[in-house]
Automatic annotation (TrEMBL):
Keywords: Lyase, Peroxisome. The lineage of its organism: Eukaryota, Metazoa, Spiralia, Gnathifera, Rotifera. Residues 32-161 form the Peroxisomal multifunctional enzyme type 2-like N-terminal domain. Pfam families: MaoC_dehydratas, MFE-2_hydrat-2_N. This is MaoC-like domain-containing protein. GO terms for cellular component: peroxisome. GO terms for molecular function: (3S)-3-hydroxyacyl-CoA dehydrogenase (NAD+) activity; 17-beta-hydroxysteroid dehydrogenase (NAD+) activity; 3-hydroxyacyl-CoA dehydratase activity. It comes from the Eukaryota. Its main location: other. InterPro entries: HotDog_dom_sf (IPR029069), MaoC-like_dom (IPR002539), MFE-2_N (IPR054357). Residues 180-292 form the MaoC-like domain.
Length: 315
């Protein structure tokens, strides 16, 4: 039952955080190898196109400024998360029909390697009682081949129907989302996704049938397969980098976002941005449905370099 699942999670939390127990410091560990081809596939999957200025640096491995989009960091880390959830190591089976991606945080401590093998170390840091469900807060650190920390990912996963167990509602470990300033956005970027966007993005490693199988999507309560939240997340990050970092991924420091509504492949993602120093607040909207799909978002940059060539669009 859902209550049993939460009980297993809470038991895992106690074991992981109790330093007096034999397995008190246990983390889930995995290595992940990738080439420039996978980094390029990711860039294409989140909307990079040769129609866009500066895009060649993300799409051509021999470009003198070839680099990896900073949000590619979610791909290896999600690989670990999915492996752990499907392995039974949490003490229960994950029902994909009842799992939603609630929030995401990514922080880079150095630029992502364009290829190589990274080591991932993941740990459940909290479980929150949200009434209608439980939020699982899960951190994954990524290290390079020299054991230097590259990135921190924090996934907040919502388990529908698992709430009401009397747990706490907030966590000091959870990176907070932040409201956008109460003024008109300083910049807006918009791009229309393709009908095949989810089919392409799933090739980066997220094979959840919710994004490709019409019958599965219907069973989950959707009229048709929806776009991955992390794909919309990639689009919004590109928009911020394009507008406030001149597409220079080296200027990226961190991002936080909350996933609030789904995007359907073929719809438009419109990113509204507000600059406050080196922090860019953002929300993403879908004009076709008049819904806000990403909220509480911000990108922290090491520096701001305004792109004055194509304001208001990523194309």
């Amino acid at each position: 039952t859902q209550t049993d699942q939460v009980s297993h999670i809470l038991d895992s939390i106690r074991k992981i955080n109790n330093k007096d127990e034999e397995k008190g410091n246990e983390v889930f560990t995995q290595t992940y190898s990738y080439t420039s081809n996978q980094a390029i596939l990711y860039a294409l999957a989140v909307g990079c196109s040769l129609r866009q200025p500066n895009s060649l640096r993300f799409l051509y491995e021999n470009h003198e400024q070839f680099s990896v989009l900073p949000t590619f960091a979610v791909i290896p880390c999600q690989s670990l998360s999915m492996s752990v959830m499907s392995s039974g190591k949490l003490g229960f089976d994950i029902d994909l029909l009842r799992i939603l991606h609630g929030e995401q945080y990514v922080e880079l401590f150095q630029p992502l390697p364009t290829s190589g093998t990274v080591t991932l170390k993941g740990k459940i840091v909290d479980v929150l009682d949200k009434g209608s469900g439980a939020s699982i807060v899960y951190d994954v650190e990524m290290f390079d081949e020299n054991e230097k920390l590259i990135a921190l990912n924090q996934f907040v996963i919502f388990s529908v129907g698992s709430g009401g167990f009397g747990g706490k509602k907030t966590s000091e470990h959870q990176r907070p989302s932040l409201p956008a300033p109460k003024r008109k956005p300083d910049q807006i970027c918009r791009e229309t996704t393709t009908i095949d966007q989810a089919a392409l993005y799933r090739l980066t490693g997220d094979s959840n049938p919710l994004h490709i199988d019409p019958s599965f999507a219907t069973a989950a309560g959707f009229s048709r397969p929806i776009l991955h939240g992390l794909c919309s997340f990639g689009y919004a990050t590109r928009h911020v980098l394009h507008t406030y970092a001149n597409d220079d991924s080296r200027l990226f420091k961190a991002i936080k976002v909350r996933f609030t509504k789904p995007v359907e492949p073929g719809q438009t993602i419109e990113t509204h941005m507000w600059r406050e120093g080196n922090r860019i607040f953002f929300e993403a909207k879908v004009p076709e449905s008049n819904q806000t799909v990403l909220t509480g978002g911000y990108v922290d940059l090491h520096d701001v370099v305004l792109n004055t060539t194509t304001p208001g669009t990523a194309e």
